[in-house]
Amino acid sequence: MPIDAASDLDVGIAHSCVRLTANGQIKCWGNNSAGELGIGSNDAKGNMPGEVAGLPIVDLAPSAPLAVVAGNNVSCAHMDNMTVRCWAGLYNGLGDTMFRGDQPGEMGVNLPAIDVGGPVQQVFDVGDGGCVRLVGGAIKCWGYNQNGQLGLGDTEHRGDQPGEMGAALPALDFAGAQVVDLEGTHGHRCALFADGTVRCWGPNPWGALGQGDELTRGDEPGEMGAALPAIDLL
Q: How far apart are CA 100 and CA 86, in angstroms?
């Protein structure tokens, strides 16, 4: 096995991250305007020979990453102490709109875990912000929400102001259905459920939600849960 083999990979809008097999550490390359690479600068990496091999490891001490996701100007890692830590973009869930990782001294012990109200079992790649599955199955999302992509019945961003995370961050309503996977972009999001159905919410240009219309879902009360239709895939 090559010493630089990867055990996990995720691709953002303009940057990529891997978790290395040999030591479980994370390297990211590509656009770095918001500190997505977590290296203490906002210099892009990977557009010059030898830059990726020579990249510093993303400092996430004292805990160790189990998985990494790369979104839209944000990166997040699922940690071995069942927390999630995010750096870069405006919607990193830390109660402000400060970038993290674009200046020296912002990573490692100075990068706080995000308060999602419980231990984290899984982290999903959803573009602008983050989504996690908590132990017990609840799904919580934060970040950009102009078109209801958080699925919380409004268009209020979450995690960019104090007091919006932790117990104050609601879980998504899926009417008790078990989520297997969740994917998202700058716009809409979709969940795969244990029964094989797929449901999507958020903005709906070009029929992105698969419902034969262009109606946004998740930005108004009563549109999630049992009211959120499954996509007819047959």
A: 8
Residues 61-70: pLDDT tens digits? 999 999 999 9
Distance CA 65, CA 57 (A): 12
In one letter, which amino acid is 69?
V
Residue 48's Cα: distance from chain center in Å? 28
- Cα 59 to Cα 7, 149, 165: the distances in Å are 18, 30, 24
Q: Which pLDDT belongs to residue 3?
A: 52
By DSSP bridging, strand 139-143 and strand 6-11 are unpaired
Q: How far is CA 115 from the centre of its chain?
A: 14
Sheet containing 139-143, strands listed edge to edge, beginning at the edge strand earlier in sequence: 120-124, 129-134, 139-143
pLDDT of residue 11: 94
Strands 139-143 and 129-134: antiparallel
Evaluate the CA torsion angle 81, 86, 11, 138 in order and state its sign: positive
> How far apart, in whole angstroms, are the C-alpha atoms of residue 130 and residue 76?
8
Domains and CATH numbers, the chain: 1-172 (2.130.10.30)
Specify the length of the chain in residues. Answer: 234
Kindly report whether the global pTM for this prediction surpasses the value 0.90. yes
| φ, ψ dihedrals at 9, nearest 5° | -145, 140
The sign of the torsion formed by the CA atoms of 96, 55, 79, 200 equals positive
Residue 110 backbone dihedrals phi, psi, to 5 degrees: -90, -5
User: 178-214: per-residue pLDDT in tens?
Assistant: 999 999 988 899 999 999 999 999 999 999 999 999 9
